[in-house]
């Protein structure tokens, strides 16, 4: 059974969702997460693979350290928006290439 995280990572994840204008389903697509992983992130479950968190951090253009532990400076909103926009372009390009 996965335990709940109490380190604030869910608060940081929710902040990123809010400032970026994304939602859980879009984040799941952009980060390539499968199955219940996205829901475990928002429930604050511990025991998820580091790669899961790394994929999410990459979508938002934030460091894994900041996302998981809050270490370092809070990301700039404009940086987060640029990173999400780039992730959306990559997703569209991948879909077009597959078609």
Question: What descriptive keywords fit this protein?
Answer:
99 residues; mainly alpha; 434 Repressor (Amino-terminal Domain); 6 helices; 0% strand; globular; disordered N terminus
Count of helical segments?
A: 6
How confident is the prediction overall: mean pLDDT?
86
User: What does the largest sheet look like?
Assistant: none
How many angstroms does the end-to-end distance come to? 40 Å
CATH architectural designation:
Orthogonal Bundle
What are the low-pLDDT stretches, counting only 5+ consecutive residues below 50? 1-6
Integer tally of domains: 1
Number-wise, the strands total 0
The assigned structural class equals mainly alpha
Helix content: 55-70%
Order of helices and strands: HHHHHH
Radius of gyration: 13 Å
What is the strand content? under 5%
What is the name of the CATH class? Mainly Alpha
CATH topology: 434 Repressor (Amino-terminal Domain)
What form results from the Cα inertia axes?
globular
Overall description:
- This protein has helices spanning 9-20, 24-31, 37-43, 50-60, 64-69, 77-98.
- The chain has six helices and no strands.
- Helix 2 packs across helix 4 (50-60).
- 67% of the residues lie in helices and 0% in strands.
- The chain has a single domain (9-98), classed as 434 Repressor (Amino-terminal Domain), CATH 1.10.260.
- The longest helix is centred in the last third of the chain and has 22 residues, at 77-98.
- It starts with 8 loop residues before the first helix and ends with a helix.
- The chain is mostly helical and 99 residues long.
């Amino acid at each position: 059974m996965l335990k709940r995280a109490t380190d604030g990572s869910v608060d940081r994840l929710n902040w990123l969702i809010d400032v970026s204008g994304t939602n859980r389903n879009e984040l799941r697509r952009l980060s390539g997460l499968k199955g219940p992983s996205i829901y475990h992130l928002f429930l604050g479950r511990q025991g998820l693979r580091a790669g899961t968190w790394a994929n999410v951090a990459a979508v938002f253009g934030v460091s894994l350290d900041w996302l998981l532990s809050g270490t370092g400076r809070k990301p700039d909103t404009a940086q987060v928006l640029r990173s999400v926009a780039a992730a959306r372009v990559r997703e569209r390009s991948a879909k077009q290439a597959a078609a």
